[in-house]
C-alpha cells in the first residue's frame, strides 16, 4: 500500500468527523465504525494507523481545540488590560468555548486511564502552566496582583488546584464537596492577594460542575 502523502490531512479529517459525531450523538454512543463510515473513502486501517482508539481521538481533540482557540494568545494582544484582568479574561474565554467545554466534559471518564491521566497532568504542566506563569508575572509587575516572592510557585499552585484538585475524575467527591473546594480555592487566592475567581467565573464553573457531578 502506498504511503499517505498527506498524513496531517488524514488526521485533521478524522478529528473533524469525530468532533461532529461526538457533538451530535455523544461520545459513548459514537463507535470507531461510525467515524470510519463518515470518512469518505478512508478505511478502518487508515483510522488505526493514526489513532489506537476512540479515546485517543477524544484526547487529541481536547488539545487541538485548545490550540485552535488559545485564550492566552487572545488576551496577550489586549494592551488595555492589566495582568489580573488578562488572567480572568483568559479563564472566561476558555469557558465560553462551547465545543471545548463539551469535549472537556466528555473527556472526564478518560482520566481513569492511567496513561491518559499522566498525559493530562503533563500537558497542564508543560502547556497551561507556562501561560499562567507569564500572566502572573505580568500582574505582579504592573501591581494588579500584590507583590509576591514566589510567582512561579503561585502559578504552579493555581494550575494544580484548577486542573487537578478541582477535577472530580481525579479526586472523587459529591457536588457539595466540589463546591466547597471551589469556594475554598477562591478564599485561599484572595487571602494571598490574588482575587482571580470573581462572580462571573464562579457562575461558569458552577454550570460546568452541574454537568460533571450529578450527586
From TrEMBL:
SUPFAM superfamilies: Homeodomain-like (SSF46689). InterPro entries: Homeodomain-like_sf, HTH-type_Tx_Regulator, HTH_TetR. Gene3D superfamilies: Tetracycline Repressor, domain 2. Keywords: DNA-binding. GO terms for molecular function: DNA binding. Residues 32-51 bind DNA. Pfam families: TetR_N. This is TetR family transcriptional regulator. It comes from Murimonas intestini. The lineage of its organism: Bacteria, Bacillati, Bacillota, Clostridia, Lachnospirales.
Amino acid at each position: 500500500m502506498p504511503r499517505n502523502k498527506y498524513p496531517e490531512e488524514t488526521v485533521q479529517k478524522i478529528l473533524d468527523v469525530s468532533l461532529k459525531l461526538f457533538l451530535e450523538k455523544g461520545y459513548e454512543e459514537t463507535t470507531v465504525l461510525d467515524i470510519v463510515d463518515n470518512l469518505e473513502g478512508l478505511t478502518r486501517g487508515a483510522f488505526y494507523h493514526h489513532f489506537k482508539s476512540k479515546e485517543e481521538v477524544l484526547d487529541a481533540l481536547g488539545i487541538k481545540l485548545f490550540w485552535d482557540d488559545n485564550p492566552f494568545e487572545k488576551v496577550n494582544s489586549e494592551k488595555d488590560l492589566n495582568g489580573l484582568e488578562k488572567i480572568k479574561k483568559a479563564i472566561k474565554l476558555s469557558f465560553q468555548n462551547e465545543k471545548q467545554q463539551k469535549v472537556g466534559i466528555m473527556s472526564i471518564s478518560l482520566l481513569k486511564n492511567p496513561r491518559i491521566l499522566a498525559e493530562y497532568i503533563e500537558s497542564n504542566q508543560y502547556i497551561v502552566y507556562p501561560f499562567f506563569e507569564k500572566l502572573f508575572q505580568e500582574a505582579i509587575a504592573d501591581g494588579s496582583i500584590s507583590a509576591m516572592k514566589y510567582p512561579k510557585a503561585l502559578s504552579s499552585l493555581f494550575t494544580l488546584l484548577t486542573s487537578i484538585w478541582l477535577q472530580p475524575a481525579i479526586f472523587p467527591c459529591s457536588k457539595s464537596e466540589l463546591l466547597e473546594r471551589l469556594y475554598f480555592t477562591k478564599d485561599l487566592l484572595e487571602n494571598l492577594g490574588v482575587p482571580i475567581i470573581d462572580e462571573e467565573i464562579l457562575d461558569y464553573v458552577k454550570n460546568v460542575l452541574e454537568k460533571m457531578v450529578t450527586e
